[in-house]
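haha ok so turns out i had the wrong file open the whole time. this is the CORRECT one, sorry everyone. sequence first:
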Amino acid sequence: MSVEPQVARTAHGGRASTEQAATRRRAALCLLLVLLVAVAVRFAAFFAFADLEGTHGDETYYVARARSLLASGRYAGGLRPPGQSSVIAASFALFGDELASARLVQVALSLVTVALVFDVVRRRVGVAAATASGLLCAVHPTLVHYAHLLWSENLYALLLVLTIWALERAERSGAVRWAVLAGCALGLAALTRESALYLLPIAAVWLVARRGREVALAARARAAVLLAVATLAVVAPWIARNVARYDMAVLATGRWRILAHGNLDEQTVRRLRPRAGEAYLYRGIRSSRERERIARDLVLGAIAERQPRWIFEKAVESTRDLLGTRSQLERFVKRRWLREGVRDAARVVVALERGLLVLVVACGVAGLWLAPLGRLRSLVASVVLLHWAIYVVALAHHRMLVPLLPSLAIAAGPLVTSTHPWRDARPWRLAGTVLTLLALGLPFVP
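then structure:
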């Protein structure tokens, strides 16, 4: 037997191994550079804050409950799930009761998000696309702002991306440990925002519906079951707590009040607030269950009055509110949350923020149609579409888009690094791209 073919195979294997090692080194270097850029812009923004120890907006709610958790081991109320407050409480336990330290923890979480976006795109598309996606997350002013605020958007974005990353690993390798990790991440996301729980059936179906014979149906079904078990195991204790305390099997006791914000006039919404003056609708009612019933009846009545035009009007209104180019940085300037010396520079960055917002949304949506994402396309599209549908029915606001920006960046990076992606695209994909972008743009037509 000739040894020449064996020598040739050995040489080929050696070259392949060398090329793989070079690719890994290049990927590691690109990731390092992306993270260095992310660290630089986040620390610049960190020191631009005028009052690192003061609370801003909803921070008051989350910080108060974090301190309650740390002091008594109990979470006060059930209006919102405990995820964000638990992270703040953990920061307080590790680094002391200082909001500046908690903000740095938030920054660290945002860097993990950037790394996960880079890695999931690298595995599916390549290093160049991963670098583009990572840089979009690293420098996007909106994501940079929210990395310092003790609101839930930063944590929720991380947990959504972690779920996508783990599901991609589960689908690619077939190892059930990744499905379990995805379930845990999804459960933690639901403990940060309840809407994440509605992703569970979508994620389970995505795992089972894998094409090809390389993974048996029984194995795919087992992965989906473990995903569901892990998710429910994470959220079950909190739901049981709410059942015992409020007789409500929910993650948050204010769901209908959130729907009220999106479907009732502002005067009625103000009357639903317990501290809105003398004539609020909850006067004398301490039961969360009864308060939810009042809000539910008001919301369903308002929706019934607006039929059959309600869903069409809400789709237009919510898309405009969700995708509008209103800048959070501009809000920081107006409220004097930033140091006086950086406010002029911040006004310049506002224009960049608006431009990048349009870029990420447009390229992300187009990328979901045209970029070479494989089955990852349907998963990311499901995450975006589900949240958009929830916000159409409930309350849409610029803040709600923040957790979706990293998911959109996963699709945007491969699109912007592709060479003429429309040339090889099927006609129905091109048509879908154009129609989707037109549908998203119509609400902004005067």
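The radius of gyration is 24 Å.
again sry for the mixup
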